[in-house]
Design brief:
The chain is of the alpha/beta class and 289 residues long. The protein has one domain: TIM Barrel. It is 47% helix and 15% strand. It contains eleven helices and eight strands. An eight-stranded parallel β-barrel has the order 1-2-3-4-5-6-7-8, surrounded by five helices. α3 packs parallel to α4 and α10 crosses α11. The model has no long low-confidence stretch (mean pLDDT 88).
């Protein structure tokens, strides 16, 4: 099932993101996590390329998830890839019956000696165009940054970057994580005034560890509210309290987003299910999913 077809059903999408673990034990644990979430009937699950695994590991894990009856989306990055690399990935995706991809430029490697392949992809839009040309029926999702890309912090430029990806064939976009809903609404308003109709799924990460989440927010360029940081800091040594706060804060975000017409919410799970499951149950109790 393609994600864009799910969007046409009139209900908000709820999806989860995972990454390939480094070990066999880690992968077994991840499959158990996904199986625990299966009763929630997620709209789809995406798998990133983090975890030090090759591109094929992401595709194989998406196929394994699809075997559980959950639509999957494989992340594809272009920063280090040649056209032959992406063509090979597309062949494998077709062979595995995968119908959705999350298409990303990817982070520039920190290795000072890194060189992009001569026939590689400078921007995400270049990768979207290549994939759309070679696999026209795939559903292609991309990333967007409501608070500006961490490398530029330029909000108008973020609109221009999205325009290039939409023109290249992007079907929908998923935001970077955010903790202040006003940034999401302002971003959607900007792109609608610029003429975009592309669906914008909200990306949220439940916060369960103060130091880790503040650091990740900094890396992603997301505002981390001082009040939330203070509450997390007070619960630094209280795992149960931190989990409860994560559920409370993210549930409140979801309620506001869903009541204002967001087409879907994508949870960055860090390969864990307790917070996401509790949030989902809260939304179900409100009749919103």
């Amino acid at each position: 099932m393609r994600i864009v077809d799910l969007l046409g059903r009139g209900r908000p999408l709820i999806s989860f993101e995972f990454f390939p673990p480094k070990t066999a034990d880690g992968e077994a644990a991840l499959v158990r996590t996904i199986e625990a979430l299966r009763p929630l009937a997620p709209s789809f699950v995406s798998v990133t390329r983090t975890g030090g695994k090759p591109r094929t590991a992401t595709i194989d894990l998406v196929a394994r998830i699809a075997a559980l009856g959950i639509p999957g989306a494989a992340h594809i990055t272009g920063i280090e890839a040649s056209r032959a690399d992406i063509a090979a990935a597309l062949e494998l995706i077709a062979a595995r019956g995968i119908r959705n991809m999350v298409v990303l430029r990817g982070d520039v490697p920190k290795d000072p000696g890194f060189q992009r392949p001569a026939d590689g992809f400078r921007y995400a839009a270049d990768l979207v165009h290549f994939i759309r040309t070679h696999a026209p029926t795939l559903c292609l999702a991309g990333a967007c940054h409501p608070e500006g890309h961490p490398e530029t912090r330029d909000l108008p430029r973020e609109v221009d970057h999205l325009r290039a990806k939409v023109d290249a064939g992007l079907d929908l976009t998923i935001t970077n994580m955010f903790y202040v809903n006003a940034h999401y609404f302002a971003f959607v308003d900007r792109i609608r005034r610029a003429g975009f109709t592309i669906p914008v799924i909200a990306g949220l990460m439940p916060i369960t560890n103060a130091r880790q989440m503040v650091r990740m927010a900094e890396l992603c360029g997301a505002e981390f509210p001082a009040a939330l940081a203070a509450r997390l800091e007070a619960l630094r040594d209280d795992a149960a309290g931190s989990l409860a706060l994560a559920v409370e804060w993210t549930t409140a975000q979801c309620l506001e987003l869903l009541r204002n017409g967001v087409p879907g919410i994508h949870f960055y799970t860090l390969n864990q299910s307790p917070a996401t499951r509790a949030i989902f149950e809260n939304l179900r109790n409100q009749g919103l999913v």
